[in-house]
């Protein structure tokens, strides 16, 4: 039985290759530059944005390398309602189907969700660690195909389609190492440290807020530029909301009270 593939958003979002399967009517493969052949995906990240456009729900789920686009609508009313009930931001785990649409001048990738669950940072961190291991293993296969020491047909197909080089593969290794660096191995922070980051996040929210407030993703990006990990920022935002220092005027936005 085919298992769900673990792949980083930074790899999945660069996919431009789709491959049909032998069974007529079955979902085609979405093939990433990092060598992941995806039909069913499993990933974890921070739900940072939810928007409904023409009865279709578009969600952004960020991991340390980028963001997945989740698209849900039509007959998937139950899971759409479940997403609406999840606070933004929250760490979530998602199992879904990979989708790639080729259009004139480019392509877009997204995930059709099948299962979603709110999780904690520890689950997200374990996913990052496992996904990094799997990504590095796939990159080793690609490097062997590039250097001619492997005849793996799938790896060779990826190398040809994406025109991979040693430098490009090394960049993807660096991406995986960067994701691993975001995993917390330190002891639980002291109350003083929590107060400090909450104050920093609160200042960003006050400074950046407009009539609609400021998007959660903008807060994450601004704090990240200051050296604060995404998980710590998400936790601080939730604390500020729970303490009534801020509120959410709409999904994906935050505003000071």
Written account of the structure:
The chain has helices at 9-12, 77-84, 121-146, 153-162, 166-181, 191-208, 216-225, 230-242; strands at residues 17-19, 29-31, 37-38, 40-53, 56-63, 66-73, 90-103, 106-118, 214-215, 246-247, 253-256. The model is unreliable at 186-195 (pLDDT under 50). The protein is α+β, with helices and mostly antiparallel strands and 257 residues long. It folds into 3 domains: 9-120, Nucleic acid-binding proteins (OB fold (Dihydrolipoamide Acetyltransferase, E2P)); 126-181, no CATH class; 191-256, Arc Repressor Mutant, subunit A.
What is this structure, in a nutshell?
The chain is an alpha+beta fold and 257 residues long. Helix content is 41%, strand content 28%. It has helices at residues 9-12, 77-84, 121-146, 153-162, 166-181, 191-208, 216-225, 230-242, and strands at 17-19, 29-31, 37-38, 40-53, 56-63, 66-73, 90-103, 106-118, 214-215, 246-247, 253-256.
């Amino acid at each position: 039985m085919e298992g769900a593939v673990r792949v980083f958003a930074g790899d999945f979002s660069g996919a431009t290759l789709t491959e049909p399967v032998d069974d007529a009517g079955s979902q085609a493969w979405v093939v990433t530059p990092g060598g992941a052949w995806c039909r069913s995906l499993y990933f974890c990240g921070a739900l940072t944005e939810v928007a409904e456009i023409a009865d279709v729900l578009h969600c952004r789920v960020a991991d340390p390398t980028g963001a997945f686009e989740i698209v849900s609508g039509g007959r998937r009313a139950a899971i759409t309602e479940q997403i609406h009930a999840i606070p933004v931001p929250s760490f979530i785990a998602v199992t879904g189907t990979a989708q790639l649409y080729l259009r004139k001048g480019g392509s877009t990738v997204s995930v059709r969700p099948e299962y979603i669950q709110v999780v904690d940072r520890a689950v997200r961190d374990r996913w990052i660690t496992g996904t990094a291991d799997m990504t590095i293993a796939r990159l080793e296969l690609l490097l062997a195909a590039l250097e001619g020491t492997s005849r793996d047909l799938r790896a060779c197909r990826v190398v040809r389609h994406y025109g991979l080089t040693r430098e490009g593969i090394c960049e993807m290794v660096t991406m995986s190492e960067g994701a691993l660096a975001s995993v917390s191995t330190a002891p639980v922070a002291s109350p003083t440290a929590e107060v400090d980051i909450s104050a920093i996040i609160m200042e960003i929210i006050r400074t950046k807020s407009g009539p609609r407030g400021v998007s959660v993703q903008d807060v994450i990006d601004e704090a990240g530029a200051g050296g604060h990990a995404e998980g710590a920022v998400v936790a601080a935002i939730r604390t500020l909301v729970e303490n009534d220092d801020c509120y959410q005027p709409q999904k994906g936005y935050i505003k000071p009270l």
